[in-house]
Structures are given as C-alpha cells and as structure tokens.
Amino acid sequence: MTTARQGVEARGIQAEEWRQRLLGYYSNFLPSLRAEEEAERYAIAQGWTASMQERLERLVAETVLRYGFRVTIKLMELLAAEATYSSSELKGEAVSLRTGAQQIESRIMQALNVGRAKLPADDAAITSVGQMMHKGAEIEVSADRYELAARLIDDVREGLLLPILEGVKGGYAFLTESVNRAQMLDGRKNPWPVQPRYGESAPSWLIPGGTERVLIEHGDFESILEMQACNSLQDQHEREVWRQVLRTRVALGQALGSGEALGVPILQRKGAWTPRDIRASVTGVTGQQAGIEFPKSFEDFAVQVDAWLADARMSADLGKFMTQGLRAYVESGTPQQQVDRQNAFIAALTAAVNVAAPFARVKPSVVAELHPNLSADGRDVLVSTIPFTAGHPLHGAILDVFRNGKLLSPKNQQQSDSWFATAKVDDISVFTMSGEAMLPMAFDNLMTPIAEAWAQASQNKDQRYSFWSLRRARPLIECIPVGPAQLQAMLRGWFVGRLLGQVTRLEERGMGWRVQVWNPDPPYNGPQPFPFPLLSNQPVSGIDLVAAVLQSLPIAMVDVHTKGNLTPLVPYHRLIELGENYGTYLADWIEDATLPPGSPTPDSGVAGAADGAAESRRQAIRAALEASRADYESVFKEAERENNPFATPLSWELRDQILAALDSLMATTIASIGKDTSL
Asked: Quick check: helix, strand or coil at residue 425?
C-alpha cells in the first residue's frame, strides 16, 4: 500500500484510477508472495517427508510389541480412513478459499464506490482496500497450503500408510500360521504351545528333571528378570512399566538404559517411500512406495531377541546376567550374594553327584553269576568342563564333593585333572557308567524299581493288567530279549514239552496260568516254574499261553537280579534245549518210548501209549500237531478278518514263528523214524 500511495496528490485521484493502481500492484505482488511462501512450505514438507517413514515404522513396531498385531492393524485402518477424510476436508476448504479470493476485485470496487470524485491517499476507503488485499493474499496462500497438505496426505496414504499396513497384515498372517501349524518346516513338532508366558506357570521343559539341579529355580525367573531389567533403567516411571519399556527397546533395537538406537529393529524396511511431488522429496527421487517386513515366525522373533540380548551395548545388565557363565554368576553380586551363590552351587553339585552315582550301581552277586571274570566295582566317570581351576576358592570343595560321592579315586586322579579348565560354561554334566559291558540284569538301579513295581502290582489282577497296559511300544517279536534262533527253538521246545508232558499248565482263579517245565539236569532237576503270574495286560487264553510265557521273559530277568542267581532263567533254557534237540526227543519217544530218567509220562491221548507200536505214537503225535496247527490257523485268520487291534490275540504277533515251529515238528512225523545204522 505504501508503494500504491506514492505520487498521489493531496486532493487525491479518481476511484477508477485507484482501482487500476491497486489491482495492478496486487497482481504483481501476489505471485512473488506465493512463491516465497511456496519455498518455505516445501522446505517444511521435505523435512516432514524425510522423517515420516521412520517415525511411522517406529510407532508401528512399538504398537505391535505393546498391543499386538490385531490392535495395530485396526488402528492403522482407522488412520487410513481418517487420512482420506482429512484430505477431502482440506481440498474442500481450499476450493472455498479460492472462491473467496476470486471476489477480491468486486469487493475493492465496492469499497472505492463512496460517491466522491477523488479519493486522497489517506482516505478510509483506501485503507479498507489495503486490508482486503492483505486478506486476499492470506487466503490465496492458505489455499496453497491446504492443497499441498491434501496432496501430501493422499501421497502418504497411498505410498506409505497402506503399504505398511499390508506389511503388518503380512506379518500377522505369517506369525499366526507359525503358531498354529502342527509342525515346523524342518519336521519338528511346533514348540509354540510350550513356550513360557509371563504370569503363568513355567512349562515342563523349563522345570528341572529328576537328574538336574539348578542354581536359579524356575519359580524365580520373573522376579529376577524384573530386577535385572530395572537395574538398567534410570527413570522411575520406566521402572514402573519395565515390561513395556523392555519390549519397545527390543523392538526398535535400542539400548535398554538410554533408548539410543544401536541395533536392528524388529521391523525391517524393504522399500523407502518418496513423495510423488519432487519438490517435497529430499532425495530427488519420486513416486516410490514404502515396504516393511516382520519376522515370519515366532522363532525368528526369538532369534532377534537373542541377538539383542547378546549385544551388551543394548541389553546392559540384563544381557550380561543372562549370557554370563557359571563362574561369572557365582563370583558376581554383593558379597553376601556371592557367598549364597557359591554355597548353592556346592549344594547343587553334591545333589547332582549323588544322583549320578547310582546310574552305574550293580549287584555284586548277579555280576558274579553273569560275569565271573569282571569286578562289580568297575566304573567310568565322565565330567564336563568345570571352570573352577586350581587356586579358585571352590576348587577344593568341588574335589571333596566328587571324593565323597566316590567318583574320585587314585585310579582316575589323572583323568579328573582334565575336568578343570578355564572356560565359559553354563552347566556341568556328570555321567557314571560301568567300566565293563554287562547285561542289564546286573544293574541294581535298573532292575530294582521294576521288581518293586511288579511285586506291588502282580498280586492284583487289575493292577497287574494296568502295569503292562500301553507299556509295549513294539511288536512282541521285538520285545522278547532273545535272538531269532533262540526264539524259534523255544517255540519248538514248548510244543515238544507239551507233547511229551514236560510242559504243564494250571489255571488259578484271579491269577491266571501257572506254567512249569520239567528239567532233567541237576541242580535244577524237576519242575521249573515260569514267572507267576505271567506278564499281560488282559486275561490269557490257552492258545496265547506260549506267547504270554515268552512275553514274561523280562520278568524272569528281573527275578534273576532279585534272587541273585540264574534259577529264574532255567525254564527258558530248558525250552531252548528241547527245541534244539527236538528230533532226538521225538525219535526216542516214537521209536522206543524212551525218555530221560525221571521224566513225566506223556498223555497217551496226545503222544500215544508207551506200550503201543511206534507207528501209533507217530500218528498220535502227528494228529496232535495237525490239530494244534489248525487251531492256530483258525485263530489267526479270524484275527485278520476282524482287524481289531484291541482284540488281536497275543499269539498272532508270533504267527509265522509258531506255524514254522509246528511245521518243523510235523516234518519229523511224516514217516516212521528208524534208527540210523549207517557207519
């Protein structure tokens, strides 16, 4: 206005001349003003767009870790809708402002039309026009701002907000799939259902087993985590919300104490957004969309958390505590904490050694029977690295623990020296084993628990069946602890013994079958009992009896350990001997009706009469074998027809071996057996 008033006479000039003069100045002034404002706007816009993606990514990562994916997705959808609404409102406001600016010229004419021929420079009308022109310039500049804001909001929505929203949805989909799948891509069972959850009981895999001893009990995990995290936080408010702060720091790759960005955020940028308007872009590149990616499974999240913990710059005291070794743990803390931790360590090691020692305990009397050339005291000890070397205050106490546990002796003194070394270790493992290979029956701590459990359950039918219910995980042929040749021999021996009356059976109410085999050899001559009651999870029929007897062989082995001698195995050895020499036993009976001295007399209805002809004995035995084979075949076919795994006869699992044994015996009765008179 100062420029427009210059050169005007005191009497003034005509209104039309004022109009032309003022509008001319306005038209020349407005573009330069808008240009100046535009430069400032875009300078601000460049700063805004340059930081927008980083700020949004940080906010998204924080929200995901604090509130979860679903809440984050909903909030971002609301933000996208709000962006659309805001852009529309800004555009409408800009249009309204432009419309108002177009009315400036007519308003100037109205203001100058005051009914006087000439208007001086200081006339109120001229001052009013100046205010209108100033207001019009403000309106034009405001419209420019609104239009730029609307364009940038649209750009942010399309190029930044929606692509990031898709990335969040993708992360949620991948994570959901990873926790719901039955097994991992490498075939492992999905571990997600058994992951620890804050505020809930520790999962079983974090609870020490019977052979483990720990220095930090699982019930203390949460309180120790809180204490160690708060030790690194200086702000009282942050300590009050330490879990929220911890999640945020991990998500953004920040130092726990200071919040300084030092690591890799959990949200990875896959594309950098640049605005479509090149004037709003710092890089000079335009029209690129943002892209982000979250870890694709909860295990990927765990890997990133582990990496954060391993970086002492970020995890501070918390990371140091969680990644420290055993020696560092017992040597750290206040003096009283150190004393408590070292005492706890010695106590835990003592308990571990006491648990480990029985793993190689053998019963001397059984060792003498099974392995007369071996010593029952032979034992090897394996110990992983112990980080408390000579000179450390705990070194002597550790040696005393092993010495008192009888794991340290002059024999392994040189070996024990190698147990100690300077190294970072998290645990110490102690293993003991027999110094010599021995049969399972020699090991007291293996057999005694079985013997005690069987003794308690065997006298009650329901408890006995429960004892063996769901215990066998393999076919019966793989659970009888003998080789194929011995198994076949025992089956042949069973049928030979039944034919010759040397295998007897008697069913007792509530207890099942009492089975014996006659043995001719001292010191175990006479009837020798098989385990009684037999091992089974259901009542045993007569046709399943041989399978049940063989299934009970492990009980006989347990009895060997209990009694300290081999007597319980004598009946099984007798079956093998009968089965290996079946031809001789059958030939002696069929041809001459001869048996070992003191043997029971066979049932004439089964094996023929001793005073009868050889052919009659042959035919009787063959008829008995054929009838038995027919019975077994009928049972086996019925089982296959029913195809019911819960009602399958026990003998069906030995069907091939049983039929082969019967066929072998029948082959000896095809024709009369004569004495071999060849030279």
From this structure: coil
Please tell me the distance from the alpha carbon of residue 627 to that of residue 608, in angstroms, as a whole number: 15
Q: Rounded to an integer, what distance in angstroms lies between the CA atom of residue 398 and that of residue 387? A: 11
Respond yes or no on whether the N-terminal peptide bond of residue 191 is cis (omega within 30° of 0). Answer: no
218, exposed or middle or buried, with CB in 10 Å at 0-12, 13-18, 19+? middle
Tokens of 203: 């999962």
pLDDT digits (tens, 9 = 90+) for 122-180: 676 777 777 777 777 788 888 889 999 999 999 999 999 999 999 999 999 999 999 99
* Band (571; pLDDT cuts 50, 70, 90): very high
- Dihedral sign for Cα atoms in the order 37, 43, 48, 49: positive
390, β-bridge pairs: none
Q: Is 433 exposed, middle or buried (0-12, 13-18, 19+ CB in 10 A)?
A: middle
Rounded Cα–Cα distance for residues 357 and 431 (Å): 8
Pairing of strands 291-293, 379-383: unpaired
d(CA 655, CA 632): 8
* Torsion of Cα atoms, 367 then 371 then 373 then 377, to 10°: -30
Q: How far is it, in rounded angstroms, from Cα 238 to Cα 483?
A: 69
Q: Which residues contact 240 (CB under 8 A, 6 or more apart)?
A: none
Q: Six-digit token pair at 444?
A: 């007291």
DSSP secondary structure, 506-563, as one string: EEETTTEEEEEEEE-STTS-EEEEPPSSPP-SS---GGGHHHHHHHTHHHHHHHHHHH
**Residue 382: strand, helix, or coil:** strand
- Residue 70: CB atoms within 10 Å: 12
Rounded to the nearest 10 degrees, the angle between the axes of helix 570-580 and helix 484-499 is 90
Helix (H) or strand (E) holding 433: strand 430-434
pLDDT digits (tens, 9 = 90+) for 278-337: 888 888 888 889 898 988 888 888 898 999 999 989 998 898 888 899 999 999 889 999
Rounded to whole angstroms, the Cα distance separating 177 from 189 reads 14
And the tokens for 450?
A: 């079985």
One-letter amino acid for residue 83 of the chain: A
Q: How many CB atoms lie within 10 A of CB 333?
A: 13
Residue 533 C-beta-side C-alpha neighbours within 13 Å: 26
Rg (alpha carbons) of the chain, rounded to whole number: 47
> How many CB atoms lie under 10 A from the CB of residue 363?
21
**What is the helix, strand, coil percentage profile of the chain, to 5?**
60, 5, 30
Task: For 362, list phi and psi in degrees, rounded to 5.
Answer: -120, 160
**What angle (nearest 5°) sits at the alpha carbon of residue 258, between those of residues 255 and 260?**
55
Give the burial class of 441: count Cβ atoms within 10 A of its Cβ; 0-12 exposed, 13-18 middle, 19 or more buried: buried
Dihedral over Cα of 371, 374, 376, 379: its sign: negative
CA distance 608 to 602: 8
| CA–CA separation, 207 and 215 (whole Å) | 12
Segment 339-397, tens digit of pLDDT: 999 999 999 999 988 887 656 678 888 888 888 887 766 677 889 999 999 999 999 99
User: For the chain, what's the residue count?
Assistant: 679
Whether residue 560 contacts residue 572, with contact meaning beta carbons closer than 8 Å, is answered with no
CA–CA separation, 456 and 459 (whole Å): 7
- Residue 491 token pair: 């089956």
